[in-house]
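Hello forum,

I keep getting stuck at the same step: I have a sequence, I want structure tokens, and every attempt I make locally crashes halfway through. Rather than fight my setup again tonight, could one of you with a working pipeline run this one for me? It's a single chain of 294 residues.
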Amino acid sequence: MSERHEGGHGHGHHGHGELDWSVMGPVLEQEAEVSLPLYREIADWAAERSDRVPGPVVDAGSGPGVVSALLAEVFPDRAVYAVDAEEALLERAADRAHRTGLRGRLHTHRADLPGGLDALPAASLVWAGRSLHHVGDQRAGLAAFGRALVPGGHLVLLEGGLPPRTLPRELGFGRPGLESRLDAVQEEWFAGMRESLPGSVRETEDWPALLEAAGLRHVATRSFLLDLPAPATYETRAHLIAQWQRRLEHVELDAADRATADRLLDPEDRAGLYHRPDLFLLSAQTVHLAERAE
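Reply #2:
Ran it on my machine without issues. Output:
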């Protein structure tokens, strides 16, 4: 399934047929690679608390498989299943498995979430990286994730956190606070996306309570920072430029903000994203760890 939208909500992958996944695949791959320090820290934290139960690891909503490959490194004694609805993304995951020497342990499985997990062997760990919010009935989705686990297995749920910041509030031109205004637009988009999902149910996003209601024992909640300070590396800058381009492509802005956006995206403007020395990436991802009862 995938993507989605960049920012505080999106990283999971579900079927949204209006997107061209052959085009989006490299975009998602780049985003995940830039965010690997964050995902590695989360995976290590989860491994410290869930390494005693045998069984495969499932990356539910894997997209192009960057995190799936990371999970295969963190759990070297376990098979990993990259699960996604989009064949184009799974092809990228399979290619990554081949390139990284993980072909024998990293497998792909095409399925919609959450029901498609039933065809897999029971997992010691299910990683749901911002994929649950693409399921209309999230409570039912959590219950399905729980059923996919062996007794004593763990669910790693990445939902919540803070939207990314990439620029100072004051840019030196235009009206300060452009990113905050774009956050409001993003929240409206996200609400509309949730409402449009089949079987959509509104839930208070109290994830520990929802996990308990789904029959899972809430173990811990922690937030992790992705802190890539200025000056941005070439890879981070390329990712952020692409992210800003997508964020601004269809959004309606007033004249002042549109002028600011045009300057930011102008490759020739020394105050734009291509040249600014103060471009950075800072975001927070909240993670909830839960266990299926023995």
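The chain is about 40% helix and 20% strand. If your local run keeps crashing, start a new thread with the error log.
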